[in-house]
Amino acid sequence: MGKIQDGKKINAYMSPIRLGLIGAGVIGQRHLRAIEARPDITVAGVADISATAEEVAERYSIPFYSTAKSMIHSLQLDGMIVATPTEHHASATIESLLAGRHVLVEKPMVGTLEEAKQIIDVARENQCHVLVGHQRRYYELTTRAREIVQQGEIGQLVCVTGQWNMRKHDSYYDPDWRKQWRAGPILTNLVHEIDLLRYICGDIHSISAETAHSVQGFEKEDAAAMIMRFENGALGTFLLSDQTPSPWSWELATGENAAFPPTSQNAWRIMGTMGALDFPNLTLWKHHGTPPDWRYQIDRRRVQSTWQDAYIRQIEHFANIIRGVEEPCIDAEDAMATVAATLAVFESAAQGNRIVLSREAVV
Ligand SMILES: NC(=O)c1ccc[n+]([C@@H]2O[C@H](COP(=O)([O-])OP(=O)(O)OC[C@H]3O[C@@H](n4cnc5c(N)ncnc54)[C@H](O)[C@@H]3O)[C@@H](O)[C@H]2O)c1
């Protein structure tokens, strides 16, 4: 590449980007902190319905709007971050796309497949990108695990087992909306795991699941158990509960969230015909001998990876999508497949059936 082209590319990566934030609660403020690390990215407006969010906007010296519509139509913006509760994701995203803005929408992208299809159609019609906030995809340890599995380092993938078991604090459930099914651990937490399972192990073909409500007695589930078959023939199991104190979860394994002291215990085990991988601490297990069977010593090796702030990487990626120099690493179609697999957990538990995911939702 010649000097002029190089210069153009550097300029493209640094051109200023102006964003609007819809919803300045817990995760909205996490985005604001990530953006502080990037002088080329500015949040030019915050839209929220609460007085607390207005105080947040004041603290950051950002103009505040009481509706997303008024902000979108008052400001020159390149893109929007949608960080409202999930039931408002579709309306805020569609409003932004109709105004020609690219969107970074929090996970889960939506709570229904109909809403997912609407977002995909409106994004296409308005030639805008949608990036979905599955931030775990940006960690180097995720990339390493994906390479190890997909490049055959543990041989042919045969099975994977994982868990997410934590106990949320009781006051978390004070707001009524948190007691409802849309705010339960399947749509809030399992959706992250399913997205990573798809990203690392491949698309999911079918799911059987059971859910339990025996601890809190709310509409939302206390626990879920699932069995999966992947498109590549591998099998998987996963256990989830937000009522079980334990060291086995992504958050405690990685220390991603400063509010939860880390344990560095693993959450998943991935097994192939040539070896196995503990995840996310990336311990690779292989027998000495050839073939690597049970007669030989099994050795462990720690695969190195560096830890970076995924929210900063995500916002850099979003800015580069807006600049036209990168494509979304998880777009609305891909996120719809994650939502479809997550919703299949509810469907299977309710019907007592195995749910085969439609091709439409896995491509
Ligand atoms: N990526 C992650 O790891 C992660 C972590 C936490 C939350 N989330 C997701 O982010 C979303 C928000 O979660 P949260 O924990 O920040 O919730 P929150 O309740 O802390 O914040 C939501 C904010 O949106 C505002 N709001 C509600 N309705 C609105 C509307 N119609 N227009 C504008 N603002 C509105 C609320 O007043 C509040 O300030 C959820 O979808 C959640 O699943 C993602």
Kindly describe this structure:
- With 363 residues, the chain is an alpha/beta fold.
- It is built from 12 helices and 15 strands.
- Helix 3 links the parallel strand 2 and strand 3.
- Helix 5 (89-98) packs parallel to helix 6 and helix 8 packs across helix 11 (332-351).
- The longest helix is centred in the last third of the chain and has 20 residues, at 332-351.
- The two termini are 34 Å apart.
- The protein binds nicotinamide-adenine-dinucleotide.
- Nicotinamide-adenine-dinucleotide is lined by residues 22-28, 47-50, 53, 68, 83-86, 88, 106-107, 133, 135, 188.
What structural class do the secondary elements suggest? alpha/beta
Radius of gyration: 21 Å
Order of helices and strands: HEHEHEHEHEHEHEHEEEHEEEEHHEH
The spatial strand order of the largest sheet comes to: 14-13-12-11-7-10-9-8-15
Q: For the report, how would you describe the main beta sheet?
A: 9 strands, mixed
How many helices does DSSP assign? 12
The CATH superfamily of the largest domain turns out to be Dihydrodipicolinate Reductase, domain 2
Bound molecules: nicotinamide-adenine-dinucleotide
Number of DSSP strands?
Answer: 15
What's the mean pLDDT score?
94
Domain module tally: 2
Distance between the termini: 34 Å
As for the CATH topology of the largest domain, it is Dihydrodipicolinate Reductase, domain 2
Residue stretches low in confidence (pLDDT < 50, at least 5 long) are 1-5
